[in-house]
């Protein structure tokens, strides 16, 4: 905007302000108030969006430093890297906007270095159980849906603790690839049975139940 135009604009606003004092409902005063209100709202919304973006960027940086929300995390256990945090210490940082814990639903701002969706108390409890071991030698386990993600991790824990484990999946060949590709598969692969099954089919479910009974 040219200086002369800005000066003219300010003079008009001053005149409208004086007019509003004497006749608040004058059509000219009302028209300018509406125009300036819209301008004020635009500026206010823009500043709010900028603040929101800064908060989001800061919180995303904290979250990205955790193990479970690392940008490079890969869900295929046989291809991905071990879950580790890039943060130094037990905390990845502090959120600017509190979020609800996935388990207890309490709001928190201090983010655990490993679990990005858990409050410090729930994260500590889950870490204490994460590496818990027990002797399952001679036990048999049936796990529905053990091909990938949490199902595969459960199956691996059962196998590594000595259990004879049967898993079900609609993709048995991929399950074989995943389990056989684990570095320690030679220690427990002989105790793993993979059953290709669609649990939506009652006949297949009954057949599976009879085979493991």
Describe the structure in your own words:
This protein is of the alpha/beta class. It has three domains: 3-53, no CATH class; 65-130, no CATH class; 140-212, NAD(P)-binding Rossmann-like Domain (Rossmann fold), CATH 3.40.50.720. It contains six helices and five strands; from the N terminus they run H-H-E-E-H-E-H-E-H-E-H. The chain has a three-stranded parallel sheet, covered by helices on one side. The termini are far apart.
Could you name the CATH class of the largest domain?
Alpha Beta
Q: Which strand-content bin applies to the residues? A: 15-25%
Task: Give the helix/strand class.
Answer: alpha/beta
Number of separate structural domains: 3
Q: Catalogue the unreliable spans.
A: none
CATH topology of the largest domain: Rossmann fold
**What radius of gyration results from the CA coordinates?**
31 Å
Gap between N and C termini, in Å?
A: 83 Å
SSE series: HHEEHEHEHEH
Overall geometry: elongated
Q: Which CATH architecture of the largest domain is right?
A: 3-Layer(aba) Sandwich
Task: Tell me the major beta sheet.
Answer: 3 strands, parallel
In round numbers, the mean pLDDT is 88
CATH superfamily of the largest domain: NAD(P)-binding Rossmann-like Domain
Write a brief structural summary.
The protein has helices at residues 3-22, 27-64, 120-130, 149-160, 172-180, 202-212; strands spanning 91-100, 107-112, 140-144, 164-169, 192-196. The protein has 3 domains: 3-53, no CATH class; 65-130, no CATH class; 140-212, NAD(P)-binding Rossmann-like Domain (Rossmann fold, 3-Layer(aba) Sandwich), CATH 3.40.50.720.
């Amino acid at each position: 905007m040219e200086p002369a135009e800005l000066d003219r604009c300010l003079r008009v606003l001053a005149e409208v302000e004086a007019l509003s004092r004497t006749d608040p409902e004058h059509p000219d005063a009302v028209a300018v108030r509406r125009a300036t209100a819209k301008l004020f709202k635009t500026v206010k919304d823009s500043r709010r969006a900028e603040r929101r973006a800064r908060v989001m960027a800061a919180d995303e940086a904290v979250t990205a430093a955790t193990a479970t929300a690392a940008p490079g995390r890969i869900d295929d256990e046989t291809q991905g890297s071990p879950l580790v945090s890039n943060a130094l210490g037990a905390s990845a940082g502090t959120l600017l906007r509190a979020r609800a814990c996935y388990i207890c639903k309490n709001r928190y701002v201090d983010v655990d270095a490993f679990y990005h969706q858990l409050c410090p108390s729930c994260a500590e409890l889950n870490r204490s159980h994460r590496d818990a071991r027990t002797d399952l030698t001679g036990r048999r386990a049936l796990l529905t849906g053990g091909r990938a993600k949490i199902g595969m991790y459960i199956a691996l824990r059962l196998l590594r603790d000595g259990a004879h484990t049967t898993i079900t999946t609609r993709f048995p060949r991929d399950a074989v690839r995943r389990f056989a590709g684990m570095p320690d598969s030679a220690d427990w692969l002989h105790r793993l049975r993979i059953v290709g099954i669609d649990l939506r089919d009652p006949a297949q479910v009954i057949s599976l139940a009879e085979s493991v009974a």
